[in-house]
Amino acid sequence: MVDKQQVRADIREFLTTRRARITPEQAGLRVYGGSRRVAGLRREEVATLAGISAEYYTRLKRGNVSGASESVLDGIAHALQLTRR
Fold first, then answer.
1. In terms of Cα–Cα distance, which of 49, 5, 53 is closest to 27?
2. Where does the pLDDT of residue 85 fall: very low under 50, low under 70, confident under 90, or very high at 90 and above?
3. Which phi and psi angles does 21 have, rounded to 5°?
4. ∠ CA(59), CA(65), CA(1), 5° rounding?
5. Cβ-contact 17, 10 below 8 angstroms
6. What CATH architecture is 4-79?
C-alpha cells in the first residue's frame, strides 16, 4: 500500500527541485531587482508559465494532485521544461 504522506513529500520534492533548476532567463521571464530568495523560478512564475493560479500550483506542490487535469500537468511540465523519457 502506498503511503499518501510519502507520495505528497515526493511530489513536493520533485516540483521544488525542478523549479530550482530553471532560471527566469531560461524560462523567458524578465528579472526585476537584484537579489532573489530562490535560485530558480518562484512558485508564482511557474504558475504563470503553466497558465494556472499561484494558489492552485501551491496546492499541487503540497501533493494534492487528485483531480488535476492533463492540461494542468502538461502546463507545469512545459513551465519546468520537462521532457518525456
1. 49
2. low
3. -80, -15
4. 125
5. no
6. Orthogonal Bundle (1.10)
pTM for this predicted structure? 0.85
pLDDT digits (tens, 9 = 90+) for 27-55: 999 887 778 888 799 999 999 999 999 99
From the list 41, 34, 49, the residue with the least C-alpha distance to 15 is 41
Q: Which amino acid is located at 13 in the chain?
A: E
Q: What residue type is assigned to position 63 of the chain?
A: G
Q: How far is residue 34's CA from residue 66's CA, in Å, rounded to a whole number?
A: 38
Task: Give the contacts of 49 (CB within 8 A, at least 6 positions apart).
Answer: 27, 29, 41, 75, 78, 79
